[in-house]
Every structure is written in C-alpha cells, then in structure tokens.
Automatic annotation (TrEMBL), chains A, B:
Cofactor: Mg(2+)
Family per similarity comment: Belongs to the TOP6A family.
InterPro entries, A to Z: Spo11/TopoVI_A, Spo11/TopoVI_A_N, Spo11/TopoVI_A_sf, TopoVI_A, TOPRIM_Topo6A/Spo11, WH-like_DNA-bd_sf
Protein name: DNA topoisomerase (ATP-hydrolyzing)
Keyword list, A-Z: DNA-binding, Isomerase, Magnesium, Metal-binding, Nucleotide-binding, Nucleus, Topoisomerase
All residue ranges annotated as the Spo11/DNA topoisomerase VI subunit A N-terminal domain in the record: 133-194
GO MF term list: ATP binding; DNA binding; DNA topoisomerase type II (double strand cut, ATP-hydrolyzing) activity; metal ion binding
HAMAP family, alphabetized: Top6A
GO-annotated biological processes: DNA topological change; meiotic DNA double-strand break formation; meiotic DNA double-strand break processing; reciprocal meiotic recombination
Length: 419, 419
C-alpha cells in the first residue's frame, strides 16, 4: 500500500519515453519538402512511354475495352441483336462470339504494368445443349442493359440478378455474363451502367462536378467526399494538387484530413478503406488521367499492403479486359516499407510477427509480375520475408499521434523516399 | 438449328413479364403521399415521453454518460489524477473506482427503448496483484487522452494502442480500459476524442458544418457526403426534411440518390452500409435531436435487417453506458417486412430460404427486449420464422429497377405502412 516508485513513473510525463526517431527532420518550408515530388511529376509528365497503347507496343493480339457513352453501347447492343434476329430468320439459329476471359487468355504487359486480355474468342450457339442456357442469359442481359441505358439510370449487379431470378438462378451466372457482354460490346462494365457499391472517400486539392453538383474537396470538413459509384457522372475534375496520397486505411485518412495535410502540402488524399473497389480504382485512374501528377502509396508494411498497391496498379485477373480504365500505372510505394522499420527505428513491440499465412502470401507475391518487374519492390518484399516482421501505418503513432503528418510524410517527401 | 420460338420469346420485349405488383398506386402528389408521415411527426413531437430522463422515470440506480467538451474532460482527468497523487503522498497508495460494464450491471429500459448501465462500481487498487496491471493501463490511458484533448485532435483506438504496446500488449486491453475511462469520467467515448472509423454516408435535405465547412447534402451529387468520425466537429445541423430514411445497404442508397428521391419527398437518406458503426449512430441521433422528424427504416427482410434496426434503436451491450447518444428511439420499421412479401407479390424465386443459422438467429431475436416490447415487430418476426423465407431490398428490382423509388416507397409512405 506504500508509495511505489513505479506508480509515480506511470503518472509522470517523463514516462512518455522519447524514443529515437529518424535522424533527419523535414524542412518547415513546403516548397523545399516538395522539390522531389515536383521532379518526379516532371519526369512522369515528360516520359512518353506513359500509357503507351497496345498498338504502339506492337501487341496486336490483345483486346481492350473502352469507355463508351450510353447511346453507343445501346447501338452496339441493337446491332448484335439484329444480327442474331437475321440469323434466326435465315433459318440458321444464332450464336454469340464471346471473348474468352480464361487465365490462359490473359497477358501481363510489363510496359503497361497491367494485365490485358488476349484475342481468343469462343462461340456460344443457342442450338447446343452445352451453351443454350448461357446464350439465353446473354440475350436477357443484353436486353436488360439496353433498358437501363435507355432510362439513363445505373443499377448494381444484384439488381440485375433480381430482375430474372428464374433464368439466372445464381448471381454468379448473371455476373459472369455481364463481364462477357462488356467484352462483346468492347466497353467497360461501368459503360453498361452496372456499377459496384461505393466505399472510397476523397479529400484535398481537387474539385469536380458529381452529377452536376460542384464539389470542392478542400471544403469537405474532416469527413471527406464519398467517391460515387457512378463514376461517369463525375465531370470537370480539376485541382492544383501536386501529388496523390493513396492511403490504405481509414485511420490514416482521418489523421490526414483532421490535420488538413493538403493545406500545407497540396495533394489529394484517397482511400478505399482496405481492398480497393472498382469505383475508387476508376476515380484514381481519372485523377491520374486528368491531372497527371505522381501517386504515392501509403500502406501497411505487410503482404496485403503490397497487394492493395498491386490492385490499383495492375488490376485483378477477373476484370483484365477493362484494365486500361481500372488500373493506374506508375504508383510509387512511399511507405510503410519493410526497410522503414529500421530507418525510422520503429520499436520492436510495435512490429508484429508475420503469421504462417502472411509468409505464404508474401512468397506467392514474389512470383507475381508486378513484383518481378520492380527490383526495388522485390528487395523490400524479400526483406519482409527475411525479418518475418510486419507493421501497420498506425505503428508510427508510437512516436506521437501526429508523427505521421508532421514528420514521417514530410520527411519521406523531402527525401524523395519512394520506390 | 431452325427457328426456335423460345429464342424469339427471349429476344422479345414481351418476355419482361408483367407480374402483379401491389393493388394500389401511390399518388403523384408528394403532399398527399406525405400526409401520414406528417401525422407521425406531429404525434412524435407532441409526445412528452420522448427521450424521458432516467430521473423522470424514477430510475435512480442507473448511470449514463454525457457529451462533454475537451476542457471539461481534461479537467475531470486532472481531478482524478490529483486525487490519486494525494493518496500516494499520504502513503495510502491509490485506486480507481470504475463503473462495472458487466451484463449483470445492465438494464433495458422499455420507456427509453435502450439499455443503460446500473450503478455497480468496482474498485481497482494499484497495490493488488490482481489489478495492478489494469490500474497502470488506466493511468496511462488517462494521460494519453489528456494529451489528445490538449492538442485538440482525434485519434483511433488503434492509434492509442500503438503509443504503448509494451504496456497494453493487446488492443483489447486498451480498448476495454478506454470504455472504463469514459464511464469514470462520465462522458461519451467520443468526448475522449477517440473515434471509430467512418463508414456511413448521407444525402438529402440537410445542411451542416463539418469542421467549419458548409455542407449541403442536396448538392453532393450521387455519391453523397461521408459521415465524419469526428462527429463533434459537426455544427449547425439544419434542414427542411420531413423524415429520415435509414437504409441498410449501399445499393438502395445509390438508387435513391441517383433518382434524387429527396427532391420529391423531402427527406434525409442515411446508410451505414451494413452493420451500423458508431459514427453513423451518433449522426442519426444528432439528426433526430436537432430536427425531431420521424425515422423510417428500410432493411432486408431477414433477422440481420432487424438486428441492424435494433442497434440503431437500443444500442449494443458493450457501450450501453453511452446509449443516450448512440441510440435513437422511435425508429419505425417501414420495410422490407416479411408481410410485404405477400402484400407486394414478391415472386417466389426472388425470396430466399432462410438458412439454419438465420433461423437460429431469428429465434434468438424473439427473446430480445426490443422485439418483446413491440408486438407488431414480434408478429412480423414470427411470420418470417413460420414461412422460413427472407428477401433483400434488391428483390424489388424484379418489378423494375426504379420500382423502389417510384412505387414501393411512395406507396408505403402514403399508406403510413410502418410499424
């Protein structure tokens, strides 16, 4: 019951132990801090290789889809259906030519840093018992998409499924055919006005119109603006941001938005709150296309953080036909990188041991093209697998709650410390 | 290979079978449609029982916390710590009195439709081996919260954990103590400036300031405004909305926002995208407190839809000490209700069979206070468990993609069809 020196220590402010952070301190001058970012921006803007077309690369047997407007998609559907009707009237039944989305028909193009679809096409005749059901579903989906386009509305995949449960039976069946239809028409899935649900949020130095409403993302309080799933309703995207900060998690986003990080360092802060959804990926692509500024990724130092960057960068295999609008090349890995753990003296107790499945997942990543084609990323991943340690962005809170915004990021930017 | 009549049928528009919907059609006049809503609003506004205090109800042994500002919370922490220091200097060691958050100390108050904490308190002495660690953690959390309040910033629970991993060891340990500290101080967890991540989104006839920025939720495009996790940064909430539409899922939210449902029927549309998070619950409570308009819930017709309503309504057991600001009384269940499946002739193939675990979960709900105290809800849940059928909001798409906004909701409103 007596006085205990440990007790006093706990109460005393001195117990907030001042651990050693990084050696350097960032400049107070935002212009100095941003010099490296501006160099990167210039280099990227001058680089002609940027978003080369498949044609320029001499890849003739790959297929990509394009963003098309409602009327064009509707017209293409009409053309496909008239062809089928004529074929029926000629007494020859009908069939569709559907681009194959099998992995054997996919190709990673290192110059583009993404996967595209090769040219294999499979024929889907109505008169075959093997394909009759799929052909009927394809026809129904074409008809429903046509209706949606004419009404100028957007629906979700789930809505589509529920319009004809008897025919579709499982949502997987209508979903798969929806991707087929996008490939047949040669448009993005979003061009079919079938959209995914929204998850992302944006704040910072960017303005745009969302369905006509003017949105200024520097005036969105601390909560930010929800990124709409109807990405084609976004117009007039502008801004004086000098870079995009792509953040894995909501907690880091909150820190950045509360500290209004973008006021001092003109940037756009985007998060999909975990695994990137289609809308956030489309939005990032749109920002990059319109503003052409560097994109810097801030993710956890673990295999999933890296995977998240790769989805923004190279896309998922399932929608590789649409990789041009869904992926964004030239994303830099700013942090938290495995080497940061030592550089920034992150205390041992704030690092976590990788689990068996983390290690397995990391080893799988070693074999992926986006890692194999980037030696610096490869080296970081190998370091992670060697030390078997991971760390979250939040681990930086150990040096103080605002260490992320006041020290870590400015320093990273000033030193051009990205790969 | 010949012409197949089935083929033609699939292609023909006539195959979009016109199934029988509900018998009545809603009025084209929004004022007529909203008559029942206005009656409900008036009744709720006149009702004195609305948000009675525990004192008024004669419940003296229950404990609730209040929203407190940064300075008040900081002062209370200083008082607690000075007391401890004095006790140490007097040679008697120190201890904290911590309100018990065990279920045995929780009470459902039917008049309030929520759970509150009873008055049991446990003593946490530093000198006991059983409580020394928890007492040290409590002290550290008090000190960290004090720092955050002085800096006038907000952090997440995860940030808090990472500031002293050596002491906290597991995040559960710092999280639990954080709730203890809120109870000790008598303030909400949000008043400690420790917030949850944001998930919710809002659109419609409401304006407010988010950290000083003026936000007009009728001008948020189709994406809506992200509900900030820093709910205490929201001020000046106003609006001419006549009701709140509380939506379970993002897909329905998208339909409502794309169709700008709130233009025709002045309302505020809120979704937490599934299980309600703390920020969305606080926001709903704030809307209700400021505008005092009816709240109508639109959820899937399954036990989880009902559970979602109950979380908004009665809160979770874990944070019952804060139920006054986290819960919102008088939420009406608009739909999709089990009885709607017949009333609206939802085709059999759009209904889903309840799984074993759905049924088990539904049976558990039958025993919960919020159901037992509401015979109409009880009857619906019993009907669900009898038919063993569930349905999603999306099932309404079967009658057309805009059936939800153009027919179902107006009709429900006009008929005052909520319970």
């Amino acid at each position: 019951m007596g006085v205990n020196s440990g007790t006093v220590a706990v109460l005393s402010k001195a117990s907030v132990s001042k651990r050693k952070g990084p050696l350097a301190v960032a400049s107070k001058d935002a212009a100095v801090v941003l010099q490296e970012v501006n160099k990167l921006a210039k280099a990227q803007q001058q680089s002609v290789k940027h978003r080369a077309t498949l044609e320029e690369l001499g890849i003739s047997d790959a297929r990509e889809v394009a963003v098309m407007d409602d009327a064009d998609v509707a017209q293409t559907i009409e053309r496909i259906v008239i062809q089928a009707a004529q074929s029926i009237l000629a007494g020859t039944g009908f069939s569709y030519d559907v681009p194959s989305r099998a992995s054997s028909n996919q190709l990673y193009v290192p110059q583009l840093e993404r996967i595209v679809l090769k040219s294999a096409v499979s024929n889907r005749p109505f008169s075959s018992t093997a394909t009759v059901r799929k052909t009927a579903i394809t026809t129904r989906v074409l008809s429903l998409v046509h209706e949606v386009l004419n009404k100028r509305i957007h629906i979700t995949k789930r809505d589509l499924f529920y319009t004809d449960v008897k025919l579709f039976e499982k949502q997987n069946d209508s979903d798969a055919v929806l991707d087929d239809v996008a490939c047949m028409i040669g448009c993005t899935r979003t061009s079919l006005n079938v959209v995914a649900s929204e998850k992302g949020v944006v704040i910072g130095r960017v303005t745009f119109r969302d369905d006509g409403d003017f949105i200024d993302c520097t005036k969105m309080g601390v909560g930010g603006k929800a990124i709409p799933s109807l990405i084609d309703r976004i117009t007039d995207l502008q801004g004086d941001a000098q870079f995009v900060l792509l953040v894995e998690k909501d907690a880091a986003f909150m820190r950045l938005s509360e500290d209004r990080f973008y006021n001092q360092y003109p940037c756009i802060i985007i998060t999909a709150r975990g695994q990137p959804d289609v809308s956030t990926r489309l939005f990032l692509n749109m920002v990059k296309t319109r503003l052409n500024i560097p994109i810097l990724g801030l993710v956890d130092s673990d295999p999933y953080g890296l995977k998240i960057l790769s989805v923004y960068l190279s896309g998922s295999k399932n929608m590789s036909y649409d990789s041009a609008s869904l992926t964004t090349s030239d994303i830099k890995w700013l942090g938290v990188r495995p080497s940061d753990l030592e550089t920034y003296n992150i205390p041992k107790e704030c690092r976590l041991d990788m689990t068996e499945s983390d290690i397995k997942y990391g080893q799988d990543l070693l074999k992926e093209d986006f890692i194999k084609n980037n030696p610096a990323w490869m080296a970081e991943l190998e370091l992670m697998l060697k030390t078997k340690e991971k760390a979250e962005i939040q681990a930086l809170s150990n040096f103080g709650f605002q260490y992320l915004t006041q020290t870590y990021l400015p320093l990273k930017l000033q030193q051009g410390d990205w790969i």
